[in-house]
Design a protein that fits this description.
Largest sheet: 7 strands, mixed
Order of helices and strands: EHHHEEEHEHEEH
Structural class: alpha+beta
Low-confidence stretches: 72-76
Distance between the termini: 26 Å
Shape: globular
């Protein structure tokens, strides 16, 4: 298995790989949280079409980043093993910027990729003028500790619908955004 990954801006050609990571991470992270039938029937083709459209249209402060596996040679690149997306917040009362996706394949966890992807998103948000950042996480998701460990503060709760069922979610906020950037700096060696 490759020992490291690089982070770069996503391109429309990455859509299928991003969709595969999305489906795989949801299937591994959400059993018992989301309906089993919904997870079993996640369509990589539909997700790829969605991400292809999203990547082609991204503008107005929106960006997506991918973690790409590297082999033994720094020049050799492999598959997409994680991704993050961000833009101006859909809920500006909570924060100015929003990280709307952050997923890393199971085999690539505990290597700092989540932090690095989160830092890429936070750096982009700061560059487009966002003074604060937030993200939503399912309240029962055990990975919520990751955001808390990085200084995210639970600031709001609501319900989101998946497969026609309501699920409680928590808004994690970094205000000012510098809290997120400093908490993730170690991942970049900064």
């Amino acid at each position: 298995m490759p020992d490291s990954a690089s982070i770069r801006r996503a391109r429309p050609a990455d859509a299928a790989a991003i969709a595969a990571v999305h489906a795989a991470t949801w299937r591994s992270a959400y059993p018992g949280l989301l309906p089993a039938a919904y997870l079993a029937h996640l369509s990589e083709a539909r997700l790829a079409a969605y991400y292809r459209r999203l990547l082609a249209e991204r503008g107005g402060g929106m960006a997506m980043f991918v973690a790409v596996a590297r082999g033994d040679s720094a020049a050799a690149t492999g598959p997409v093993v994680g991704f993050s997306g961000c833009g101006h917040a859909r809920h500006p009362r909570l924060a100015e910027g929003e990280i709307d996706t952050l997923y890393v394949l199971d085999d690539w966890r505990e290597r700092g990729l989540g932090r690095r992807l989160l830092r890429a998103a936070g750096t982009h948000l700061a560059a487009v003028g966002c003074g604060s950042a937030m993200l939503w996480v399912l309240s029962d998701n055990p990975s919520r500790w990751f955001y808390q460990h990085l200084g995210g503060r639970a600031a709001a709760w609501d319900t989101t619908s998946v497969a026609g069922q309501g699920f409680r979610r928590t808004a994690m906020v970094w205000d000012p955004i510098g809290l997120l950037l400093s908490a993730t700096a170690a991942a970049d060696g900064a």
